Queue: 4 jobs
Job 1
Amino acid sequence: MKDKFIIWTNYIDAQKSKREGRKISKNDAIASPTLGEIQSAAEKLGLRPVIEKEKAYPREWWGSKGRILIEKGKQKNKALKEIAREIRRMRK
């Protein structure tokens, strides 16, 4: 797994605070992203996503939302912003 980044939905969720796990600014983030949206956006960006639905975000261990693994290649924050931007485009 050293060649992949982990992406949790909280990382790009505008409704989450930094303390709750958001990694990008609220302006760049989107409201309530789903695993499916993140997967579709990552595929469009050529990041080869792998979904792990049974995983639970450690800070919210009681709710199993799942996570996505993407290939390393660019900085994680840059990839998160691009995924959020692509989801915003897909929602329009």
Job 2
Amino acid sequence: MKYERFEQLPVWQAGIELARRIYALTGQREFRGQRSLRDQMERAAVSVSNNIAEGFERGTTKELLTFLYIARGSAGEVRSMLCLLEGLAGFQDLKSEISDLKLKAEGVSRQLRGWADSLQNSTITGQRYLSEKTRQAARSRKDRDEFLEELAEIRRGGVKPGG
């Protein structure tokens, strides 16, 4: 499936859900008096989906990769702070929620890594570099490949010309 908007991306949706859940966590009474920790967690969580969106909108594969790795780093930062919470006095009542959020952040990180890995060796340079000339070249390559496959099938005796 070709995604035309970052809002359609499953990993962006997962990033938004992570941020929503972090905000719900930091809204708990246990975070009263923990302003800097709360703010840092919220900023890191929001950074995940924002960097996915920014990279997607940049229009080049190279820039997208850069922002995917920044988003992945932010997911790691969220996970690190959740690990910190597990060891802090006063957060034991949130242990299950913290554990679930760590898994969510790890899942987002895995999705980002998978997408980045698939782009690493891609010949796609990005939307910004598409011109009528490059689109025509891509269509020509596709037509040629389809023709060669048809020809190979004919040689194998599977299809008769014109039918």
Job 3
Amino acid sequence: MKQKFTASIWQEDEWFIAQCVEVDVASQGKTEDEALENLREALELHFTPPVATLAPQIRSVEIEVKAA
């Protein structure tokens, strides 16, 4: 499924910054096109479901909480 996102692009020194307006994801590049391509890749990674290579361990943690 394809979905369109809006990118805000600005220049900081020698770098162009591309930030997605709808999702808190940003990237950079030496040109506007490179920044947009890097943002596209960052968004694809952001929406890729995680795949665990090792099963996580679940543990309990006990702490003392003082009343305020």
Job 4
Amino acid sequence: MNSQEHCHSRNISVQCFYVNDKTMTVEGSLKDERFFKSEVQKSDEHREKDTIHHIVVKMDVSLPQLNILSISAELPKIPNEACYGAKNSVEKLVGLQIKHGFTDAVRNLLGNSEGCAHIMNLILSMGSASVQGAWSALSRRTSQGNLPGIDESIMINSCWLWREDGPLATKIRENQSAMNK
């Protein structure tokens, strides 16, 4: 029988909040937890069982375009004070549209020594959750009627289902063609 000891856990949580017909707020949290006392490799530093990282990112995105209007990061718990230097790197994302290519753009702007890998991973999760949140927010019916829907072209090539030659992209092209006649 194989004995296992829980050593690490990462939890990412993302919530989307409808603000109005033009804005949605997306809040994300990343927590890394260590479940036993440990040493920092190649140093004399010891750490207790504890949360290692707790990072919170908040961004406002435009509806239905999914452009990042504003973004900020808070670092309530980090393993090293020097990590605070990466906090403002998220501001590079203002104006970026969440659509096919978003992952590569975020990696280019925040990857390697440009930012923080933990913040970057949280924002990537927030990007895909933003699309789902926008669909939810914009597909509901209000007392004023239907809200404007999301621009489906944002979805093209974002996944297998939405591939350019797939059934949903084909249906969108057919519908657009019929509307233009």
